[in-house]
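Risk register update: the risk of archive-format incompatibility is retired. Evidence:
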Amino acid sequence: MLSSVVFLTSSVFAQENEERSLGWSLHIDVRLRSEYLSDSFRIVAPATDQLKFSRTVVGARYQASDWSVEVEVQDSRAWGAEALSPIGTDDINTLEPIVAKLAKQWSLTEGSELDLSLGRMTLDYGSRRLLARNNFRNTSNAFQGAHLSYVSPSARAAVFYTLPLQRRPDGLDLESLRDKEIRLDKAGSGERFWGASIDYAVPQADATLATYVFVSALNDEPGRPVADRELATLGARFLWADGALDAEFEAAYQWGESLASIFSTPDEVLDHRAWFTHLHLGFELWPEFNFRLAYDQATGDRDPFDGRNERFDRLYGARAFELGPSGIFGAAVHSNIRAPAVRARWQSSESQAWLLSHRWLSLDSPRDFFVTGGRRDSSGASGRKIGGQWELRWRWTPKDTSFVVDLGGAYLKKGEYFSGAPGALLNPAAPKDSQYIFTQVSWSY
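Archived output:
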């Protein structure tokens, strides 16, 4: 159970409670994906969009008895973008060393271990909702700094201090980004991220308890305008499984100061108070078939004129594993949202897996932004209902090969929000339902 919530410096070489192989090891992963989207929900978007993506990861590590050196280079590219395509650093980052670190391990008593990592790294924590190495997204969050973890048979504790890597070129130099120019990502002092966590397994109850605190600071730097923030996020997570039943509850509270936008001045700083929660209950109705009821909520800003900001900041988390495919779709995100859901996952054969889900999407605050759509009705008159989102995925893992084939799609049946929200006239396709399809092939060595 503990393996589902551990905090580690993540890489393709990550091993949990396993004896390490000494000497050199090599990993290669290649992924190709095609995405199609029609009638986007965004305020600015082409009527139809079709893009091709590639992601190649090459990594090498040398492991000695109690220390290791690791380097991992990721190359992410995209083709076919139109002038209004929602493409950016989430999609393109060419020849970037996302991992370049030195690690030292100390074996302690009773199977416990202390691990220190220094350098560039990727990070995963727990549910991955607030801190993750991205899987579906074409580029990955990466950090530069130090990470110290303690692991025992029943618990894990960790502390870290990092400077998040700013992917270059960024959206301010869109021509260079789309031309896939090679520039080394930058760890600037204007963006800092640190925190600590404790995870504890309770074997007699088949449960895991976890708590964490993350602190994020983001400030303007020359050539990089941002909405400044100084935020602390305190959260807790509970997981339980007993035979055919499983449950998870996670909640986090966020406080500090933030600016409403990049156009705000320093004297317009807002008091920041926000929260998010996730709850689900799963049932194994028969072997290899799991049915889940779930609810996600992340607060939005209730009043744009009251001097406070209640919009939850999702930090460096992932969403595609839970809220639907991201890429050029990505209607749902852990910010200003309410999203009850039903989901079914099953294995139709040894090599084939399926997922079918439906989410009812609405705004937590109708006066705040629909974040991924770039729309806001400050009066709240357009209502909350974003619509109903269907998702279907199929994965085929051919036996005795290193290939994985994924096919999937999403359908957003738009709600009343799109008939009255500002921006509908700028995007004539907005009232029509959004349709998204992706095909993907990956190979690893």
